[in-house]
């Protein structure tokens, strides 16, 4: 990259844990002339690009949008003053001038926003937990019963991978279910 | 509310009620928002994510449908007969509710004058 960098990487605390926080951070960055361009690889943060310094507000929507509806979905936002910026899976980020009508104006649709992702993260956490248990059993068997070195190594590595994924996946699920509970009444 | 079974909406949420009112004549997304704003003289303004979510939900429940025959660039929606029946019942229900409010206010006033 050149010495006068045009883009910057901004790490994210994770949208599941600090959604509003991250959106406010992006807004502050726009004030300083760093405008959101896209999610970074693997969604670990954002890539911002140099632009005119101008305060804008950012908002995240979580919505499964089939490809045939993509134009319609983005047009509805554009018509109400929300410009489309980028997506990662079902997560879409929009930008607008301060004071624009919020993208969600109804609690029931905010609930919908978090309903599906909560279920998905729950399934993911359960699968990771099951895999952890299975590899535990496999490790035990390969060590104590079969006494098989290769199998033992494989299960060792997979147990490590599972254990590394388990806590974050559980935390994401807990974060979303708390958010979901806040919007149910 | 309708969270346990999102496809059953015997009682419409305020936002869904306004969308159905707007779709008594066919409209596209932005026109729905504009119409609601005009109808309520700016009191109700609907965000695009709420509009999109509810349109898809109402469409799944068969209360509105996408106009297929038009080859306009923008998709327009229109209310179905079950949607019309639902919104008519809802208008009546909401009228009854505001009448109940008026009666309760009158009752309270009368009770006060009796006390004095």
From TrEMBL, chain A:
InterPro entries noted in UniProt: DUF2812
The keyword Transmembrane helix is annotated on this UniProt entry: yes
Keywords for the protein's UniProt record, in alphabetical order: Membrane, Transmembrane, Transmembrane helix
Domain of life: Bacteria
Record field: transmembrane: 123-142, 154-176
Name of the featured protein: DUF2812 domain-containing protein
Cited Pfam families: DUF2812
UniProtKB/TrEMBL annotation, chain B:
Membrane-spanning segments: none
One matching Pfam family: PadR
Domain Transcription regulator PadR N-terminal intervals: 21-86
InterPro entries tied to this protein: Metal_resp_DNA-bind_regulator, Tscrpt_reg_PadR_N, WH-like_DNA-bd_sf, WH_DNA-bd_sf
Protein name: PadR family transcriptional regulator
Organism: Paenibacillus phytohabitans
Taxonomy of the source species: Bacteria, Bacillati, Bacillota, Bacilli, Bacillales
